[in-house]
Fold:
Amino acid sequence: LFSYFNGNGDGLHLAYSHDGLHWQAMNGDRPLIAPLIGNQLMRDPSICQGPDGKFHLVWTSGWTDQGIGYASSDDLITWSEQREIPVMKHIPTTLHAWAPEVYYNADEELFYIIWASSFTTPEAMEIVAAQPKGAGMPRLESSPNILYYITTRDFETFSEAKEYFHPDFGVIDGAVIKKGDRYWFIVKNEDGPELGGKNLRVTFSERMADGFPTAVSENISGEQWAEGPTPLQLGDYVYVFFDKYRDKRYGAIRSLDGANWEDVSETVSFPQGIRHGTAFRVSGSVLEKLLTHDAAASAEAVPQAR
Structure:
């Protein structure tokens, strides 16, 4: 499955694929759930499934929120009440908490949530506080983004938020996958193109708890501006799907070893308008139930002939 949003952050969308390359929108490409908390956006929805089968969803709830959104589901159809995880409210000058990624680390039996934050001045935060709900991002002076994280076992109690990845460039969108004995961490270099940024980089670690080296690879995503990477292993390859956000389309690269990357964008297809999402595997029974629900919802939406 692939979780994503459309527009400015309309809610949770899902697409499905049997081969991981060709994706079809579900629910008529309408949101399955709409945002109800924070600044009432739902951008960058990230989903992972825990060992008990429950699905956990986190998202960017607003351009200037200091928390992130959270909800859970047993079947991806019926969802819990939405609530805020106040990840950065302990630092009053936090400008935002963007693009959270949730990852279950089986080695530690622990969920990691990783997101990007930057900081501004108390005076700028007064401007932020005056913004109406749903407003866009105000143009304010701020520090470059760095990645923070928390951990949890139950989504009720959380570790203290700490820096996780602070390279010598602005960084957002940290996505993790484990292949063999090594964790791969794909991030976006958020610096301007004149500094070599607006593209994806990768770094590796043998233990998530140790973090990742900030000496990252060269650009792995090509010349187009790229963000929102999500990795998925297909066969022996790690594929990374990403948002070519200036081109308004999705791209894909793949690698066997993390050092040599091949652009395979022409071999994938996604629903039109898809934005920053997460690819994740589910069982056939979960997909079957989703498709049955999808068909029933579509039938109800079509007027019956007299």
